[in-house]
Amino acid sequence: MADRLLPRVPEAPVVGVALLPGWLGPAVRVELVERCRAWGEASGGPRVPRMRNGAPMSVAMVGLGWHWYPYRYSRTRDDGDGGPALPFPGWVGDLAKRAVADAVLVEPSVAEDPNGFAPDVALVNWYGPGAKMGMHIDDDELVTAPVVSFSVGATGVFRFGNPEGRGRPWVDIPLESGDVVVFGGPARLAYHGVPRLVPGTDDQAVGVLPGRLNVTVRQTGLAG
Description:
The chain is built from two helices and twelve strands, in the order βαβββαββββββββ. The chain is of the alpha+beta class. The chain has a single domain, classed as Jelly Rolls, CATH 2.60.120. β3 and β4 form a beta hairpin.
């Protein structure tokens, strides 16, 4: 069966997944890019995490609130210079809360209690040319609150699979600049990844050239 590239509609493509096309307006996209650049500089530059086998990921990252490296969170950049993780910006948390509130209008199973969503970490992911993210599950958190993913820049193919493994069935969802995906409930622990970027789709208006900026906001459930 061929991969299914879903049309860009606001309906939920998978139970527990809500797609909000163009949810981030132009001004917010520009600000997000500027802030991400500042966060990268403040952290000594986005780093490329290495998997447990030593292989480098192709995505560069900056952690806000918590530092993430395979496969744990820390308050310090343990696999880098050891400095503290940058603070989690309240306005990013507020933006994510709004996204969850809108997402449940599209797909109610995203969150049983959207008002209970209390994000405390954001992972800034920079996809340069040729970068991708393998199929994985977000299970380093102690709670299964929704995950909010903001996309700016080049269109990325978001592959959303199933909780059983990295293989099929899956669906491919094109995420353009300004799109937001929220997943939770029955889809919270499903495998997902980004197999490729779509060439020639850079958002020149926000100055992200070339590549894709993704900010993933989560609630860890961790204390301290």
